[in-house]
Amino acid sequence: MIEINHLTKRYGVLKAVDDLTFSVAAGEVLGFLGPNGAGKSTTMKMITGFLAPTSGSIRVCGHDVESAPLAAKTCMGYLPEGAPAYAEMTVRAFLDFIANVRGLAGDRRKSRLDDVISRLALGSVLEQPIETLSKGFKRRVGLAQALLHDPPVLILDEPTDGLDPNQKHEVRTLISAMSKDKIIVISTHILEEVDALCNRAIIISNGRILADDTPRNLKARSATGRLDDVFRAITTGAPVQGVAAHA
Amino acid sequence: MHNICTLFRREFASYFATPLAFVFIVIFLFLTGVCTFVLGGFFERGQADLAPFFTYHPWLYLFFIPALSMRLWAEERKSGTIELLMTLPVTLWQAVLGKFLAAWAFAGVALALTFPMWITVNYLGDPDNGTILAAYVGSFLMAGGFLAIGSCISATTRNQVIAFILTAMVCLVLFLLTGFGPAINALDGLLPQSIIDAIASMSFLTHFSSIAKGVIDLRDLLYFATLIAISLAANAIVLDMKKAD
Lengths: 247, 245
Ligand SMILES: Nc1ncnc2c1ncn2[C@@H]1O[C@H](COP(=O)(O)OP(=O)(O)O)[C@@H](O)[C@H]1O
Ligand SMILES: [Mg+2]
Description:
The complex is a heterodimer. By secondary structure, chain A is an alpha/beta fold. Helix content of chain A is 36%, strand content 25%. Chain A has a six-stranded mixed beta sheet, with helices on both faces. A four-stranded antiparallel beta sheet of chain A has the order 2-1-4-5. Helix content of chain B is 79%, strand content 0%. Chain A: Keywords: ATP-binding, Nucleotide-binding, Transport. Chain A: InterPro entries: AAA+_ATPase, ABC_transporter-like_ATP-bd, P-loop_NTPase.
């Protein structure tokens, strides 16, 4: 369970996130949609405890992110935007490091490592330094890192950004396969992704929630049945191809 | 403790992931040799001690330690791994300490590899090995002081070159020149003697040279311990306040 209450973040005078309130329950795959600069990454950085909110509160699995950061971080896996990883480490050394920090030991450690390595097909690059990997593999290493401790909550910031269509498909399949009893929040500006993966979509722009619905209901708002048109209508506030202008 | 150890090992190994560590150590050893034998006149002095070797340590550290500390946090910022690190279940001070200790251990390795110097002087004469050991301890503590300052400055920027230059400047002006005879003498007459003494007592040089004479005084130890503690606390505060960019 993620509970977000009146969450606001200011960078100087800019309100990047403006009074967000929503919660996400187990089994939900939430697509966090919005144009570039909408505040998606900033929200995720606050949920995962990287940035402190200017005001408002966040609880993850019952733990307040600000007052009990370690407990909250323990139940989350996070893929930051761009999947940063220690470039000079080999994939194996990096995953070992994450396993150590996550306190995985013994049989569980081995089975979790085996699981993510096979799920993300990293077997062939284990001894390769991360800086020598292709973009697709780097992203997979980032996902492996986030999944390693099998967390109940996954926060994925643009998990398929910059991947080719095949790689996108693989990552989506992977996420779908895990979605049964987890909470997964995915930020994206690719709408087909929401359609393919999510059972709920929140559209934000300028840090505010403009829509919170199922992808199916959102599509129904357009005469064309295209999520793209709905997205444009909602985020620009202008009528687009048969979608009534958003109030 | 477990987390500090994990972070320490990752950081320490990262020094050896590139040839940089070896280049660093080779140049350090070469320059300590040059300083001792050429500038310090090790043979000409005809004394069996390592004074000419240790005298140059503060000045060598002025360049070597910022080169070690510059990447500690600037690199994490630049590559974005700071976001990964800070969203793992580790506390800020565990991260600061783990990284600092790794850099300090690396400096310790470089320092320990100067042991042929010690063998040479024992072969040539009959030095006071207690004094030499004390000077090594002092040099290691001084390296820790430089590193803690460097780590803090590295946390303020994503640019390693800026971190290097700022660290070298701060260490030079605040911690070396303040205890350097010619510089401090220039203040004679300008400031009251008590203030000049107070400034000198803040200096690495003052405390290092007193330890290097062979006396490990509690005040000198406390000086370095306090300096390291304050710098690392500032390091954590800087990180906490300025995570986003
Ligand atoms: N560290 C920062 N300092 C100042 N402004 C920032 C910072 N990070 C993001 N912003 C601004 O906040 C807004 C939201 O950014 P972000 O959350 O990254 O959007 P998104 O992920 O939806 O593209 C943007 O206008 C961006 O320029
Ligand atoms: Mg973003």
